[in-house]
Specification:
Two copies of one chain form a homodimer.
Chain A lengths: L1 E7 L3 H12 L3 E7 L3 H9 L5 E3 L2 H5 L4 E4 L6 H8 L8 E4 L5 H11 L6 E2 L1 E4 L19 E4 L3 E2 L2 E2 L3 H13 L3 E4 L2 H27 L4 H6 L3 H6 L7 H10 L1 H23 L3 H17 L4
Helix pairs in contact in A: 4-5, 7-11
Amino acid sequence: MIKQLSIIGVGLIGGSLALALKQAGYCERVVGIGRNAARLQAAERAGVIDSGTTDYAAGLAAADMILVAVPLNAYVEAFENIKGKFKADAVITDVGSAKACVIDDAMKVFGKFPANFVPGHPIAGTEKSGFEAAFPELFRKRRVVLTPIVRQGLTITSAGAIEAVTAMWRVAGAVVENTDAEHHDRVLAATSHLPHILAFSLVDSLARENNVEEIFRFAAGGFRDFTRIAASDPAVWRDICLRNREALLQALEHYGKDLQELRNAIAHGDQGTLMEIFTRAKTARDKFSFS
Amino acid sequence: MIKQLSIIGVGLIGGSLALALKQAGYCERVVGIGRNAARLQAAERAGVIDSGTTDYAAGLAAADMILVAVPLNAYVEAFENIKGKFKADAVITDVGSAKACVIDDAMKVFGKFPANFVPGHPIAGTEKSGFEAAFPELFRKRRVVLTPIVRQGLTITSAGAIEAVTAMWRVAGAVVENTDAEHHDRVLAATSHLPHILAFSLVDSLARENNVEEIFRFAAGGFRDFTRIAASDPAVWRDICLRNREALLQALEHYGKDLQELRNAIAHGDQGTLMEIFTRAKTARDKFSFS
């Protein structure tokens, strides 16, 4: 049970978690903290949070769980805003799409890695953003990856904090898994950040054509699905690109080589290689149902 | 009204059109023609066609509408199989995803372009294939592009044939539009063929990694939608790559340049360019609802 969950940044993710925990009766009180009082009032009126405040000290004093849910470029500011204002036994977690940069920011602001901070990433979302898009089922059967700090075989992150965060996400319906931050960042670069880059780039490329209206008119369901992620929040994705830069550039380079191989097979009319690539892709895609 | 529709190649597209026309009472009899008698019998048992035959002369003799719905590499064979076996006033159309190559094949086999042949492309489909996946609503509100032959301002394709094919697709619920084959091929290369190539390549690239199971486990809804088209029929897409090769390679080269620009913005931490690209893409993607 959580007595008070304080959310820094009440958007799609934080809002959906708040709704899920309240619906399950797992959290007595949800307090939203942010810079925009009007947005917090709207979230309160919408029933996503119980109350909102722009005063970090007031919003954090009674919190036993603190969720940082701000864009990746706003972590340093968020950590500075919460520093010294929470209870010694409060558990802190976050929902950032890249984890090594979050750990770096925490070390920078707190001096060392806080043992009660459990970096986390719920692999869930839609192309929509804002608390208006929040719904309590968002995390159901989705995976949440936690990246507690392990140094020389010793877990620095407190076991109790990991347990508390794991329990919270399970209540929201998620499947929780632990891994290290660098590994998380490499895998997510390939499965999430790279596809977003490819889709953004394709839609932008077409949007710059003279006959853009016709192009989109001729587009079918495959294009619609392929490009859905290109409607995602530009600022969120700018931050992800910059904060997971190395892993993303590596994924892009790796992909570029494979795409070049496919391009050459097309250019040379190499039927065998085309069938090999397409069949291997179809087999892999059919095998994973993404329940 | 169509008395007899003969379909060469009863799969998702041909089967769905048959079901739509029968449901609307627009077609008295649908005959399937192909090489595989067992598959034709199964399509008949499933109620997708009224009868099936491997004998082209028998299947075509009474047809007033002939639909060629075979993979792009099988057109020459299909045209040779139907040549001289249909009524002089029968209308022929097709559903190939590239159109210039189909026109080339027709000229090759028939000596000149048959005036009663209306090249067509229903921009509809799913990642599934085979008549088992057919359903009568597939074309509802979808676009069908016809590419009748125009030379020096004169339409070579018969006006009556264009009318008959247009009427047929409208009965199936489609919106029919005319353009020229080369233009069709360029636009479809960008909106359909290129996205398929990108998705096939990404899934194949990940499928070749050692930790493929983990990679797919960490994949979210965005990845699922982005890669849905990678489950498409490999042979169909091999043929499309080879038969619309020039337009596809041009689209790929154009895209490669834009993707390189985005890559450089990431590498150089160029926040302004990232916001510009992502915002332009989101605006374009939000604007078109793909109803």
